[in-house]
């Protein structure tokens, strides 16, 4: 759970990612591997905010378009939940428009204990 200071920074667009990865345009399997590697790297480097560009989710109206549009975005929650890094994730939030809006996520990692 994030405190109100975090929420204010996310809404206001003042949050600055420490690291970013772009999964947009990759196959599901490649994106999954890249995400896992990025999380491992982020944890090793004590990163707090990882920006993950996923691409825009599918339109809710079921409009015609590429069958793959939004595939990474629809899977990322499952990947994060089942990840070896799940215990290190404090929160996942939709990015501010300046960082990609609906096409990106902030993964906020917990501080290391000790």
How does this model look, in words?
With 114 residues, the protein is an alpha+beta fold. It has one domain: Ribosomal Protein S8, Chain: A, domain 1 (2-Layer Sandwich). Helix content is 33%, strand content 18%. The protein has a 4-stranded mixed beta sheet, covered by helices on one side. Helix 2 links the parallel strand 1 and strand 2. The longest helix is centred in the first third of the chain and has 17 residues. It is globular and about 40 Å long. The mean pLDDT is 89.
Question: Key features?
Answer:
114 residues, alpha+beta, Smr_dom_sf, Ribosomal Protein S8, Chain: A, domain 1, nuclease, globular, endonuclease, four-stranded mixed β-sheet
Order of helices and strands: HEHEHEE
Oligomer: single chain
User: What is the CA-atom radius of gyration, in angstroms?
Assistant: 14 Å
**Sheet of most strands:** 4 strands, mixed
Distance between the termini: 20 Å
Broad shape = globular
Specify the helix fraction band: 25-40%
Summarize model confidence as the mean pLDDT. Answer: 89
Number of helices: 3
- Count of discrete structural domains: 1
**Regions with pLDDT < 50 over 5+ consecutive residues?**
none
The CATH topology annotation reads as Ribosomal Protein S8, Chain: A, domain 1
Strand order, largest beta sheet: 1-2-4-3
Number of extended strands = 4
Structural class: alpha+beta
Please identify the top-level CATH class.
Alpha Beta
Q: What would you say the CATH architecture is?
A: 2-Layer Sandwich
Per DSSP, what share of the residues sits in E-state strands of 2 or more residues?
15-25%
Protein name: DNA-nicking Smr family endonuclease
Domain Smr: 21-110
GO molecular function, one term: endonuclease activity
Keywords: Endonuclease, Hydrolase, Nuclease
